[in-house]
Specification:
The chain has 529 residues and is α/β, with parallel strands linked by helices. 31% of the residues lie in helices and 22% in strands. The protein has three domains: 8-211, Rossmann fold; 220-402, HUPs (Rossmann fold, 3-Layer(aba) Sandwich); 422-517, 2-Layer Sandwich (GMP Synthetase, Chain A, domain 3), CATH 3.30.300.10.
């Protein structure tokens, strides 16, 4: 079992949002530790937890609270996460979220949880709040109502004895929150940690500061030095390679580490053939401004196209890209005698890859768990995009923040959907991406959009051009806004912008239609593949 040296312990029960709980607490100024139920079960008497509660030196060393995350299981299933009931006897506040609330109800009354009648409750829900310490400074607003995010298949149909209902939805029919003040237990069915729940982080802040009396023990000003110190400790006397894509994550990480590691760090950029227009030169310029010298590797472009072009299946395309990507890394590592590889992988990537706790696999990421025979260092694995952007500001990398949007590692390969990748189709998407970007900048909205995706849909439809019949592809333009990319909502474009984009894109002889996509995540992901 891992060493527990924290005020707030988050037990990961399989939610895609567990890391967001930690991120939200960090934003509020509180460190926290995520642990699995299995690690707790290694000490059935919860003796390690008891020991961690004894006062020790250092801020945050005294465990003061437990948060139970959401999860996809049902509490009454045989394979449901096994949480030691002894946590209820520790005498410290507990907050259950989604599955965590269901477990707290079930363990006190096995007849209290049932499946949602209409199937899974998924999406926005209006919640009515009652008076509670958990909702202090929130329940008084908007007549005691908030818009929250719901994602669960089971529901608490009645609260256990000694518990009271503190939140409901659907005119009081559905229980959305409960508490037992005598046992210091609080629970909500919705997700207060995600951006779609409009509580301004008040619920988590109330729990940490007012209910648990946690002290502020996280300061982002110390993070850069922590990243450098921890990386140097892991690297020792070795040599590390880092692939820089020109995006916020890898460029910022290289800028942070270059002064600290010096000649121990070898940075390079791979021209995969799936880059944006003039991307490689722009990446080199940005890296140079950040004090990072890059080697450009472009001899694998044809191999990337040929390999990814073997399949139209999204996961197979990612696997083919990943294989060539790993081959390049191995060649570079050998040329430098590298012992380690440093990746700018974020929490979002690890979560979607099923590599964070108990989260399910959503999509395979090219830079996660490569197994190349090199020791892997992932300094940004706990961080989300907006946090890395804040670090970028420390280095004056304003171009990363104002003139560029995130771009997936496999690049334009993921934006050719339903048809095999070819150099011709890559060029169509590359030019379309450039056209859309210029139009959005012209209308001064590009800076307000978190990410713009321009993709080619490989389904031919009939059109008319020059009084003649054409049978061609469609392009789809997706604009979204988000904080952490774990959830996104559509950024709706004005009619005049949509018309200008459509007019520009259908000028290509093989493009017949243009669609606009503003679907939220979930259910959609940010990229199409």
């Amino acid at each position: 079992m891992q060493e527990i040296n924290t005020q707030i312990l988050i037990i990961d029960l399989g939610s895609q949002y567990t890391e967001i709980i930690r991120r939200s607490l960090r934003y509020l100024g509180f460190r926290s530790t995520i642990i699995s139920p299995e690690e707790l079960l290694e000490a059935p008497d919860v003796g390690r937890l008891e020991a961690s509660r004894r006062p020790t030196s250092g801020a945050g060393a005294n465990l003061k609270s437990i948060i139970l995350s959401g999860g996809s299981a049902s509490v009454y299933d045989g394979d449901a996460p096994k949480i030691p009931k002894e946590i209820l006897d520790l005498g410290i506040p507990i907050l259950g979220i989604c599955y965590g609330m269901q477990w707290l109800a079930y363990v006190n009354n096995p007849d209290s949880v049932h499946k949602v009648k209409e199937g899974k409750s998924y999406g926005p829900v209006e919640v009515t709040l009652s008076k509670s310490k958990l909702f202090e400074n929130l329940s008084e607003k908007n007549n005691g109502k908030i818009n929250a995010w719901s994602s669960h298949g089971d529901s608490v149909k009645k609260v256990p004895a000694d518990f009271s209902i503190i939140a409901t939805s659907k005119d009081g029919v559905v229980i959305e929150g409960m508490e037992c003040q005598a046992k210091n237990i609080y629970a909500v069915q919705f997700h207060p940690e995600v951006e779609q729940t409009e509580d301004e982080n008040i619920i988590l802040n109330n729990f940490a500061s007012k209910i648990c009396n946690c002290i502020l023990d996280y300061d982002k000003k110390n993070i850069i030095e922590e990243i450098r110190t921890n990386t140097k400790k892991i690297l020792g006397n070795g040599t590390a390679i880092i692939g820089v894509s020109g995006g916020v994550d890898s460029t910022t990480l290289a800028a942070i580490l270059a002064p600290a590691l010096g000649e121990q760090l070898k940075a390079f950029v791979i021209d995969t053939g799936g880059m944006r227009k003039d991307e490689v030169e722009r990446v080199r310029e940005i890296a140079k401004k950040a004090g990072v010298n890059l080697e450009v590797i472009d001899r694998y472009k044809n191999k990337f196209v040929e390999s990814v072009g073997k399949s139209i299946d999204a996961e197979e395309k990612r696997a083919h890209f990943r294989a060539v990507y790993g081959e390049v890394f191995q060649e570079v590592a050998k040329s430098y005698g590298a012992t380690h590889m440093i990746q700018g992988t974020l929490a979002t990537d690890l979560i979607e890859s099923g590599g964070a706790g108990k989260s399910a696999l959503i999509k395979t990421h090219h830079n996660v768990d490569l197994k190349l025979g090199l020791k892997e260092i992932i300094p940004l694995s706990d961080f989300f995009k907006f946090e890395v952007r804040e670090l970028a500001r420390e280095f004056g990398l304003e171009e990363l923040l104002t003139n560029r949007q995130p771009f997936p590692g496999p690049g334009l390969y993921l934006r050719i959907v339903g048809v095999k990748v070819t150099e011709e189709l890559l060029e169509i998407v590359r030019e379309a991406d450039y056209e859309v970007t210029q139009i959005l900048k012209k209308h001064n909205v590009y800076k307000d959009i978190s990410q713009t995706i321009v993709a080619l849909l490989g389904v031919n439809t009939v059109g008319v051009k020059g009084d003649g019949r054409v049978y061609g592809y469609s392009l789809v333009v997706r604009t979204v806004e988000t904080i952490d990319f774990m959830t996104v909502k559509g950024f709706y474009l004005e009619k005049v912008i949509c018309e200008e984009i459509t007019s520009a894109l259908v000028k290509h002889p093989k493009i017949v239609r243009v669609f606009f996509d503003w679907t939220t995540k979930p259910p959609a992901t940010t990229e199409f593949e």
